[in-house]
Structure to design on (1666 residues):
């Protein structure tokens, strides 16, 4: 690789030239920053300015470029130089737009700008151009676990996009629940009648597809590796174990119907004439096969009246059954009521519900059922008991406001979906509940055999905007294992999951990071010889990317890594880093700041700001010209989880009067894009107090804040309040020793 | 040759010496001015009104209206049926729509008509006088003949129910139809804005059977007109007119109010504005006299 | 009894015999009709509740109720119903059906007036307003009638003065020449309707 | 320009809201060439105009920031703003799209320094606040606008204001001679992520929107609660700027109604539940929210959120479709009339403000498309056999999360087309 040649470009546009001495900035870049090449330009992001930089890169063999202009979030198209290492000094939003225009402020404003140039130079010199993970793994095959509608769809859609697929189904036949249905809820207009499930065609398309291999009666014995290089041990029907090499995985392991046996109050088990929705489908298929009407189990008599009890063991506030709503059951009961009405309009069909939930065009399906004479009653069912020649359903009619009972030949309980998500790895190993759980993926991961679960046992993503972001890179949940859903949604969900699986193998092959740092070519580099095997990185990685080898050294599976740097923040001996983001790139910036002496009355506050939310909030505050203290120096971090405590202690040792950390909300509704980053940072900073005491410093000198991207006004206020507090408790006694 | 010709369906209340005689008188007068030829459907019969349901049932009411249609079709071919009474218009139009929609009802209805040797072909169009004025003439044309603008009089446009729901006039909103206000302005009067009882029900036929409940409605209607500074109420519906005008004295008696709010038909406003006499405008038919209007009518 | 509850029997009866009755099953219990009715406060059971009662099989309560007799035919419910139910007509239909079956409350004033109105109009083909109002005053007997009439005499006189009430109506009423035709038509129509509904006239 | 670059290997994504951005990015991150066109001057769509999301009460622009960074880091997506399709012709794998580009009057020299806005005097209703507030006629759509470039409103072109803007710009970014142009794109597949629009509330007559001062729509209410909005995040009512502490939320405003929208718009229940929390946060224990509903459709784990709101003492629920709203002329208060159908209780309830949980209708209008793009009766795009696909709310009324799933699926279907490997569809 060519030797390093640094260059700094100082923009004078957007008022920088008027309010700051760019001459002074240039000198600093040259003398202190040791930049080989320094240029000032009136309009750097303009075609001419950009051309200038390009020429230097080509003619002057510049390898490292510092842009001292606007925020790193601005003008990214103009300042796009993929062949060189890049650093940005934020003079516009970070200084000009956040500092008062008044002349008396000019001095402090210039000091601030000078520091940002110093910091930029320092960072640049420690930065390398990321070249991508050299261990790029290139297996593009996709494994689909589960052969129901979700799995079949994921397999078929991936194959249709040109990818090889291997599908593993634990049963001896494909089709899952759909194969057990008489008909399904319609997907298209007029949304009036039950439709054929179409499962046979789907199965035929999958089994007949040249790019899909299917294993029936098969389970996963072990899954090890990473995106682009998973190695999966499959126990196949014959009992033999075969190894499948794949690049990514879709988990479509579906759901199990909630055990109606737990609902004796609703008559289940007391009489065969109380069935769940699956039971009704069975009866409907038998009837269809026999070419007659649906008959009740007890005596085989034709069903003349049927009652559907919605939310059976669902939306339970008592905590003894499912707390959530399974979403599909209203439409399913409507469909099942139609089984009766379409065959014989004389059959009485009553649906007892509390909220009828048929979103979108489901409303048409609801209307169609009413047109067919299905009666809907808003009520709460108290009990179902066997009665002479049928069942007695006692309920509160919420409209007519009375307790009533009605008799029916058959009662159908709309019970909920329970996800098949394997082992809950968050449970303690000695937890009996865990013992009862059978692992599905059998991941050979340090952090557990299955994917982390979110809520109620579902493997859903926590993010509204990014539904496919599981915490296991390259493994995507699809269908009811992720969230209760109907068949139409499962098809959509599985198609999306198939895309993510494809994307995962493409990213892995290119050595790129996956979401949320998609395309990032940097990856964690470890000085393994310095490692003390403390295991913090392997335990704390939010994505379970790091395993341990026999001798308990960390094994970084780069393509499982999301590049958040949590491991870097965790490492007590600081042997983990990225080419363009490391303990040094940040540490050097901290040290580069010009530290006024203890008599100057000019405190210095270091602000480490999450680049996803706090930093943009600061930018937007500047855009609104919200002024904040000139004593703060801001360094964006990939995630608060990447903050290594050494930065804090270094800062305090070198005379900073305080350190602010701004990260995302943590806890149940966390907003950290790296899931655990901000939480870990918070935890670590909780323990820094001791360090501070050792240094003889007030604990206020380190403060952690939860900041949302919308806290535009608040960030400025937080900074000012903090600086005020620092002035109140006085400057740091460490200054002298710096 | 008249500009426009229609098969006229005055309805029971709009006959001479009937409760809406003044509606008839004023309508005739304004048609003279606009050169509209109204020919009564020979021997027309009652529409059955809404209240006819209890004893009448469905088919007999349809048949009643169909008889008028059949008569119009045979004696006044090609002419739209025009009603002034809201109830007549509504019953007739509902009948037409229901027969158009159901071949079975059409068959049964004609089976009934056959008993009198009549047959309904299903060709007539049923319209309200206000529709005719707005759609066939338009506000501008209606403004042309104005010689005595009703300047200085504030009118609360009380639309009521049956010219408004469920069909509506000229595609106007059910909650805040503007046509009556526009007509008031067309003849130079001032329409009070924000009259919030504009489409309140006066109780309709139940004014007779449920007097107190209806009079509560009527009280709101009149009170709100006063609140909004109206001098008079104007309406397109005979039953509304009758209920709202007649019962004011009752309400005064029972509840000590001092209501004295004239209630007129749009046709009376137009007749006066067009230069017609108080008599031609049927102002002599008011229980609560509309002095301000009479003054204008009296002006040379 | 509970055996018959929430069965379709009464709903079917209504669909078959009540004007526009086939719409009752389409109600989704939003209640916009109930809230839209000018006489709402006086209803024992607003429309949406009546529809639920029909579906719940409460035959006697529905047909014996005076609720639907409170309908003023203002059509607010009709234009607001999100399911486009012709509620006004269903109310009329229910009232008519209850009346035909003799289940409607005996002294329900609107029932009496409605009957009076129909008899009045079907006699000559046109409404005789004078007889109608007199009939109304005297519906509760002669004495009460005089009292009612006196109470309303100012209005009556006013109407006379305004030439909007004609004393001669008593002797020489407005009438259709074809009154006989009308009787024939109405008789036939009723016969057809009864046949369709399987009711005896 | 773009036209010449695109090929039948290119995927065209129409609409730069969250669904469109997602479809474009997911495809591009699989290595595909994408052209993303957006009719407004910025990406972000309607979700950007939401204050917060249910059920986490998190902030939409947080996800937007991530998506924008993905976009800035990915050269495979080319973005055209102020761009609308006028016609698409051709067949699966080989489409030609006519794109109309409206003039921005600001070129990419713009540094977003804001001098033009300072120079301009004219103001326009802020389209990014549902016209509740006003902004200068030279404006940056919002703080998260992408591209981060100002726009000149056409209304000032030819005026002195326009000249002032031009004079104020030191980077030659203001170009008053820009003209509307139409470009042609050759693409293999098209993803229609054209999103939704709020149903015209004025057509729901009994609720008096437009007639009554203190009746607003749920999308407008988002702006009132948002610190970036016209009231700086204070929930004040339009009539008199008084604090709206007692707020009525009216569900199914246009939805589930054959006089308006046949379908259920799915998000409105959750949106109102979320908005009750805005009221609670703003006024604490003084807050009063009442939700008038037919059915509360809090599906799957949204049920948790519903239960949380039910437990909130400042929130109550009434099972009723409100019949009509009347205004108390003196106070400007709204009085809701209706019947609680759970046991028949009549109410005339006074509130400071009524929020109509307004329905979603598809926004796609008047574009010539080949028959291989089927629509349902409500105008939503259905699955077809061609190379064009609906994504997000163009395909169905969806919440953000499901819209993103739908867009991700649409991206794969588009990839199948340009990869030319897709088997014959069987629908």
């Amino acid at each position: 690789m060519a030797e390093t040649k640094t260059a700094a470009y100082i923009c004078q546009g957007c008022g920088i030239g008027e309010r700051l001495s760019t001459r002074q900035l240039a000198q600093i870049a040259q003398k202190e920053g040791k930049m080989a090449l320094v240029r000032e330009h009136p309009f750097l992001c303009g075609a001419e300015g950009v051309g200038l930089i390009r020429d230097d890169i080509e003619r002057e063999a510049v390898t490292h470029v510092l842009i001292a202009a606007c925020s790193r979030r601005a003008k990214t198209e103009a300042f796009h130089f993929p062949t060189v290492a890049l650093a940005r000094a934020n003079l516009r939003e970070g200084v000009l737009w956040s500092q008062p225009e008044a002349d008396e402020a000019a001095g402090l404003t210039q000091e601030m700008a000078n520091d940002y140039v110093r910091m930029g130079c320092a960072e640049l010199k420690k930065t390398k151009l990321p070249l991508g993970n050299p261990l790029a793994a290139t297996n593009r095959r996709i494994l689909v676990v589960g052969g129901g509608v979700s799995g079949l769809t994921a397999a078929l859609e991936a194959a249709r996009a040109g990818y090889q697929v291997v599908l593993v189904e634990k049963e001896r036949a494909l089709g899952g629940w759909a194969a057990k249905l008489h008909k399904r809820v319609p997907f298209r207009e007029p949304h009036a009648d039950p439709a054929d499930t179409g499962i046979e065609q789907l199965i035929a398309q999958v089994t007949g597809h040249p790019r899909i291999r299917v294993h029936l009666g098969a389970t996963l014995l072990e899954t090890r590796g990473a995106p682009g290089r998973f190695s999966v041990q499959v126990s196949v029907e014959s009992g033999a174990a075969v190894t499948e090499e794949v690049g990514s995985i879709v988990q479509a392991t579906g759901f199990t119907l909630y055990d109606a046996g737990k609902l004796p109050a609703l008559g289940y088990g007391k009489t065969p004439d109380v069935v769940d929705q699956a039971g009704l489908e069975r009866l409907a298929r038998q009837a269809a096969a026999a070419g007659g009407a649906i008959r009740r189990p007890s005596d085989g008599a034709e069903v003349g009246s049927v009652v559907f009890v919605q939310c059976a063991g669902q939306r339970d506030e008592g905590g003894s059954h499912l707390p959530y709503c399974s979403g599909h059951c209203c439409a399913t009961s409507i469909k099942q009521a139609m089984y009766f009405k379409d065959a014989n309009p004389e059959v009485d069909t009553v649906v007892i519900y509390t909220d009828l939930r048929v979103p979108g065009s489901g409303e048409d399906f609801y209307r169609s059922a009413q047109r067919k004479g299905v009666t809907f009653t808003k009520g709460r069912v108290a009990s179902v008991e066997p009665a002479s020649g049928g069942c007695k359903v006692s309920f509160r009619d919420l409209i007519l406001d009375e307790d009533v009972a009605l008799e029916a030949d058959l009662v159908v309980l709309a019970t909920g979906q329970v996800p098949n998500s394997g082992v809950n790895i968050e449970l303690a190993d000695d937890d009996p509940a865990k013992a009862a759980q059978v692992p599905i993926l059998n991941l050979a991961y340090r952090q557990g055999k299955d994917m982390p679960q979110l809520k109620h046992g579902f493997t859903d993503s926590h993010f509204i905007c990014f539904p496919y972001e599981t915490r296991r890179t390259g493994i995507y949940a699809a269908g009811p294992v992720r969230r209760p859903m109907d068949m139409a949604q499962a098809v959509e969900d599985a198609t999306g999951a198939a895309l993510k699986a494809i994307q995962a193998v493409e990213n892995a092959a290119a050595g790129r990071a996956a979401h949320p740092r998609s395309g990032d070519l940097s990856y964690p580099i470890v000085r393994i010889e310095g490692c003390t095997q403390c295991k913090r990185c392997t335990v704390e990685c939010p994505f379970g990317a790091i395993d341990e080898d026999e001798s308990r050294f960390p094994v970084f599976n780069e393509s499982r890594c999301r590049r958040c740097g949590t491991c870097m923040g965790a490492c007590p001996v600081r042997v983990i880093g990225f080419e363009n983001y490391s303990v040094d790139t940040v540490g050097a910036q901290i040290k580069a700041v010009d530290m006024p002496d203890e008599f100057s009355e000019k405190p210095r506050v270091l602000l480490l700001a999450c680049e996803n939310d706090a930093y943009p909030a600061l930018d937007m505050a500047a855009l609104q010209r919200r002024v904040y203290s000139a004593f703060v120096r801001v360094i964006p971090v990939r995630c608060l989880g990447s903050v290594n405590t050494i930065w804090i202690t270094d800062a305090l040792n070198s005379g900073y009067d305080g350190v602010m950390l701004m990260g995302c909300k943590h806890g149940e509704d966390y907003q950290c894009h790296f899931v655990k980053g901000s939480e870990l940072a918070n935890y670590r900073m909780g323990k820094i107090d001791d360090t501070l005491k050792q240094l003889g410093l007030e604990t206020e000198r380190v403060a952690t804040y939860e900041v949302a991207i919308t806290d535009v006004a608040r960030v400025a206020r937080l900074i000012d309040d903090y600086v005020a507090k620092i002035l109140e408790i006085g400057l740091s006694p460490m200054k002298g020793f710096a | 040759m008249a500009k426009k010709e229609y098969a006229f369906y005055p309805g029971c209340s709009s006959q001479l010496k009937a409760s809406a005689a003044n509606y008839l008188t004023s309508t005739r007068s304004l048609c003279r001015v606009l050169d509209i030829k109204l020919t009564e459907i020979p021997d027309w019969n009652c529409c059955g009104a809404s209240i006819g349901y209890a004893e009448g049932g469905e088919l007999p009411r349809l048949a009643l209206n169909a008889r008028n249609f059949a008569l119009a079709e045979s004696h006044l071919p090609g002419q739209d049926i025009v009603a002034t009474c809201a109830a007549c218009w509504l019953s007739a139009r509902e009948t037409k729509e229901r027969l158009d929609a159901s071949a079975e009802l059409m068959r049964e209805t004609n089976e009934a008509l056959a008993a009198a040797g009549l047959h309904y072909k299903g060709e007539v169009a049923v319209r309200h006088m206000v529709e005719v004025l707005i759609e066939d003439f338009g506000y501008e044309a209606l403004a042309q003949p104005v010689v005595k603008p009703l300047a200085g009089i504030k009118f609360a446009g009380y639309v009521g129910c049956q010219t408004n729901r469920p069909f509506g006039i000229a595609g106007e909103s059910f909650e805040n139809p503007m046509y009556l206000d526009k007509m008031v302005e067309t003849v130079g009067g001032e329409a009070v804005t924000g009259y919030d009882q504009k489409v309140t029900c006066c109780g309709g036929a139940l004014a007779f059977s449920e007097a107190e409940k209806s009079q509560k409605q009527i009280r709101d209607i009149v009170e709100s007109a006063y609140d909004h500074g109206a001098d008079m109420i104007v309406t397109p519906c005979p039953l509304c007119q009758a209920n709202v005008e007649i019962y004011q004295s009752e309400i005064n008696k029972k509840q000590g109010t001092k209501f004295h709010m004239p209630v007129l038909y749009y046709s009376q406003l137009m007749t006066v504005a067009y230069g017609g006499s108080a008599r031609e405008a049927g102002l002599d038919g008011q229980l609560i006299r509309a002095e301000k209007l009479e003054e204008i009518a009296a002006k040379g | 009894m509970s055996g018959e509850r929430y069965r379709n029997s009464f709903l079917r009866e209504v669909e078959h015999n009540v004007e526009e009755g086939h719409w009752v099953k389409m109600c989704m219990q939003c209640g916009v009709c109930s809230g839209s009715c000018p006489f709402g406060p006086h209803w024992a059971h607003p429309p949406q509740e009546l529809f639920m009662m029909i579906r719940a099989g409460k035959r006697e309560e529905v047909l014996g109720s005076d609720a639907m007799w409170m309908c003023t035919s203002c059509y607010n419910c009709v234009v607001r119903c999100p399911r486009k139910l012709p509620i006004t007509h269903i109310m009329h239909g229910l009232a008519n059906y209850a009346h035909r079956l003799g289940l409607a409350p005996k002294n329900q004033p609107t029932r009496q007036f409605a009957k009076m109105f129909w008899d009045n109009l079907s006699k000559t083909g046109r409404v005789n307003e004078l007889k109608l109002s007199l009939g109304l005053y005297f519906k509760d007997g002669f004495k009460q009638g005089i009292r009612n009439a006196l109470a309303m005499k100012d209005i009556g006189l006013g109407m006379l003065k305004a030439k909007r009430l004609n004393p001669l109506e008593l002797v020489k009423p407005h009438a259709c020449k074809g009154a006989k035709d009308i009787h024939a038509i109405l008789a036939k129509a009723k016969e057809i309707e009864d046949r369709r509904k399987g009711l005896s006239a | 320009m773009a036209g010449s670059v695109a090929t039948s290997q290119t995927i065209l994504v129409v609409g730069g809201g969250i669904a469109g951005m997602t479809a474009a990015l997911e495809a591009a991150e699989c290595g595909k060439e994408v052209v993303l066109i957006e009719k407004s001057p910025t990406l972000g769509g309607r979700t950007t105009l939401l204050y917060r999301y249910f059920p986490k009460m998190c902030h939409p622009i947080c996800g937007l920031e991530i998506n924008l960074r993905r976009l800035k880091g990915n050269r495979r997506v080319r973005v055209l703003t102020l761009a609308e399709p006028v016609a698409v012709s051709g067949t699966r794998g080989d489409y030609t799209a006519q794109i109309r580009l409206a003039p921005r009057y600001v070129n990419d020299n713009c540094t977003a320094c804001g001098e033009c806005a300072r120079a301009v005097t004219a103001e326009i209703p802020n389209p990014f606040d549902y016209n509740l507030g006003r902004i200068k006629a030279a404006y940056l759509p919002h703080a998260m606008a992408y591209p981060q470039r100002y726009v000149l409103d056409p209304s000032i072109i030819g005026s002195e204001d326009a000249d002032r803007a031009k004079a104020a710009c030191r980077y030659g970014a203001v170009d008053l001679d820009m003209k509307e142009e139409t470009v042609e794109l050759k693409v293999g597949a098209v993803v229609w992520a054209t999103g939704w629009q709020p149903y015209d509330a004025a057509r729901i007559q009994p609720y008096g929107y437009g007639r009554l001062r203190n009746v607003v729509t749920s999308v407008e209410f988002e702006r009132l609660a948002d610190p970036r909005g016209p009231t700086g995040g204070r929930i004040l009512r339009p009539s008199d700027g008084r604090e709206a502490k007692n707020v009525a939320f009216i569900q199914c405003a246009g939805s589930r109604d054959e006089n308006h929208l046949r379908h259920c718009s799915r998000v409105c229940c959750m949106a109102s539940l979320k908005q009750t929390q805005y009221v609670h946060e703003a006024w604490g224990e003084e807050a009063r929210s009442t939700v008038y509903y037919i059915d509360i459709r809090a599906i799957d784990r949204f049920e948790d959120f519903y239960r949380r709101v039910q437990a909130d003492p400042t929130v109550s629920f009434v099972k009723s479709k409100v019949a009509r709203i009347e205004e108390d002329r003196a106070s400007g208060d709204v009085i809701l009339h209706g019947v609680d159908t759970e046991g028949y209780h009549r109410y005339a309830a006074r509130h400071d403000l009524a929020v109509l949980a307004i329905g979603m209708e598809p926004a796609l209008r008047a574009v010539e498309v080949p028959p291989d793009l089927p629509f349902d009766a409500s105008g939503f795009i259905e699955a077809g056999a061609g190379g064009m696909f609906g994504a997000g709310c163009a395909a169905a009324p969806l919440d953000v999360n499901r819209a993103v799933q739908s867009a991700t699926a649409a991206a794969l279907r588009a990839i199948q087309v340009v990869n030319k490997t897709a088997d014959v569809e069987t629908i």
